[in-house]
Amino acid sequence: MINQLFESTTIPVLEQVVNFAQTRHSLLAGNLANLDTPGYKVRDLSPQAFESKLKQAISHRHESATNRSLGDITQAVNNPIGQISGELETFLYHDESSGNLETQIAAVSKNQLQHNLALSIMTSQFRLLQTAISERV
Fold this sequence. Notes:
The protein is mainly α. The chain has one domain. Helices cover 63% and strands 6% of the residues. The chain contains four helices and two strands; from the N terminus they run H-H-E-H-E-H. A two-stranded antiparallel ribbon has the order 1-2. Helix 2 runs antiparallel to helix 4 (101-136). The longest helix is centred in the last third of the chain and has 36 residues, at 101-136. It is elongated. The two termini are 17 Å apart.
């Protein structure tokens, strides 16, 4: 029952966004650390590929939610949003450029904003759930 409560919110989606941002931040930090290393190729995760996969998972979740009965337990096994974090390696690409400091700093800043926004929204969701639970008791 508690899983169905969380699955009906945006928390699983936000969790995947936070996971993606954390993984991408590690790669971007590695790029900054190795910027002056001869022959180093910049690595990054494709935000466009991640967003596309996330949109597909969300639409699949909505389709399966409308097609299943209320007591169906198969949603936990066929959770398309939960499977995204296992596929982050497929979003990895190597940039053939040497990369420059400004581009990498901008990417880190944008990624940090995305991460912080997802965490803020997730915190709000948990507060709403906590309020709803405490009001019923």
